[in-house]
Design brief:
Elements: H1 8-12, H2 20-31, H3 34-56, E1 66-70, H4 105-115, E2 121-125, H5 135-144, E3 149-153, H6 158-167, E4 172-176, H7 181-188, H8 193-210, E5 217-223, H9 232-242, E6 246-250, H10 257-266, H11 269-275, H12 299-313, E7 318-322, H13 330-335, H14 347-350, E8 351-354, E9 359-361, E10 369-370, H15 376-380, H16 383-394
Parallel strand pairs: 1-2, 1-8, 2-3, 3-4, 4-5, 5-6, 6-7
Antiparallel strand pairs: 8-9, 9-10
Length: 409
């Protein structure tokens, strides 16, 4: 597979100072003194707190360090690896796909007041979160309470909200981008998506410069796929040219039909009822998983692209990988679903997703409660979350095989 030429404008872009990112992070902490508390709690939970809970608390957990607020399932794109647009006709009856059941602003604000004491990092996501009708107002309420906010977006509407995102001192924005123009538009299912996303990133950088603000820190997330593989190295140069701080290359989250069938037999309605779990079956529906197209012949080129990206990122921007796999584990990651990776997942102790209708779900279509009907604290350490943690402590389900929230190395 030939290595495509890099973008000429990105080659010409000057290197940014190595200290710029860390300096701006310190300035963000100065603007929001509660940011240090949030970051320290994240590190404590990651390195000490979760392990203590797993060992001594039998399924109970300290307060979450992160909350994923899925504000809406509305989206203006149709990405090939995403299940959301496949639910346009709502064949499953899942309530969180119905825009008429999206939570009102008051319920989200009530949640913020309930968790303000321990200030988890808030991930505002979706769908496309900027399509939530009360997005701006919720952002205002979150920042008024001193929360650290991480916005995840496809970037096509960023130019509309860039000034307010900067003015509200949002700490981080992650923008999904899969490659240069033809690659990105093909994967995103919309002609012109690449140009809109680039315009959104440029608008955010311009607003940051205009307001002389240290934030937000801007991260591009690029998912590895058969289509994006030839242009992974170009993404470093493109991200640098756009003024982005971090490029994150994400290994594909994927599954196979055979493994999904095995999973649904393991996490069946009968198993869930027997274990005291609330499951909306099937745990992984048809259409809610992506099958990787990478073959053994692609692996040498993938490895060379990752090494080239690392080389190009030097003195340009910070490069991250998710999950952060050693090079010798990339082949089994993509080609061997039976490889004996670690069976540890700390996600149910770290945080949870709250879906657009208020459903609290750890993952896998399991339901722990609903914030519109119960206080969050009752759900977080309620019997369903507690039992799920007890089960996950022993061994993961087959469907967890390539989830980015679990441990690999």
């Amino acid at each position: 597979m030939p290595n495509q030429p890099p973008l000429p404008e990105a080659q010409a872009a000057p290197a940014r100072p190595k200290s710029s990112l860390s300096t701006r992070a310190l300035k963000l902490m100065w603007r929001n003194p509660r940011m240090a508390h949030t970051l320290l709690r994240e590190e404590y939970r990651k390195k000490i707190g979760i392990q203590l809970d797993r060992r001594f608390r039998d399924g109970l957990s300290g307060p979450p360090a992160n909350l994923n607020l899925n504000l809406t399932r509305r989206c203006n794109l149709k990405c090939v690896m995403c299940e959301q647009h496949r639910h346009a006709s709502d064949p499953t009856g899942l309530p969180w796909y119905d825009p008429r059941r999206e939570l009102p602003l008051s319920t989200w604000v009530g949640l913020l007041d309930q968790v303000a004491a321990f200030r988890p990092r808030l991930y505002l996501t979706g769908g496309e979160p900027t399509l939530y009708p009360h997005f701006a107002a919720l952002l205002t309420e979150a920042k008024r309470r001193g929360f650290v906010v991480h916005l995840q977006t496809n970037g096509t509407l960023l130019d509309r909200v860039a000034d307010s995102v900067v003015a509200q001192n949002v700490e981080m924005v992650t923008v999904s981008m899969d490659g240069p123009l033809e690659v990105h538009d093909a994967i995103r299912g919309q002609e012109g998506a690449f140009r809109k996303t680039c315009a959104g990133i440029r608008a955010l950088v311009a607003a940051r410069d205009r307001q002389r603000s240290p934030g937000p820190i801007i991260l591009i997330n690029c998912v590895i796929s058969k289509a994006s593989l030839p242009t992974l190295d170009q993404m470093v140069l493109l991200a640098h040219e756009l003024g982005v701080d971090i490029l994150q290359v994400q290994h594909t989250i994927f599954n196979t039909a055979a493994n999904v069938a095995r999973h649904n037999r393991a996490l069946s309605p009968e198993f869930a009822a027997r274990e005291g779990l609330d499951l909306i079956p099937p745990s992984i529906p048809e259409g809610e998983y992506y099958e990787s197209e990478l073959t053994p012949a692609d692996l040498p080129f993938l490895l060379s692209q990752l090494k080239q990206a690392q080389r190009l990122a030097q003195d340009r921007l910070k490069l991250l990988f998710l999950p952060n796999l050693p090079l010798d584990l990339i082949e089994p990651y993509y080609l061997d679903l039976t490889h004996p990776f670690s069976q540890e997942c700390n996600a149910p102790w770290k945080g949870c997703g709250i879906l657009p209708d208020g459903t609290v779900s750890p993952c896998l279509h399991l339901v722990a409660g609903n914030i519109a009907a119960q206080p969050f604290a009752e759900i977080w350490n309620g019997p369903k979350m507690k039992r799920f943690r007890q089960i996950i402590s022993r061994r993961l389900f087959p469907g967890c095989v390539r989830c980015c929230s679990r441990s690999f190395p």
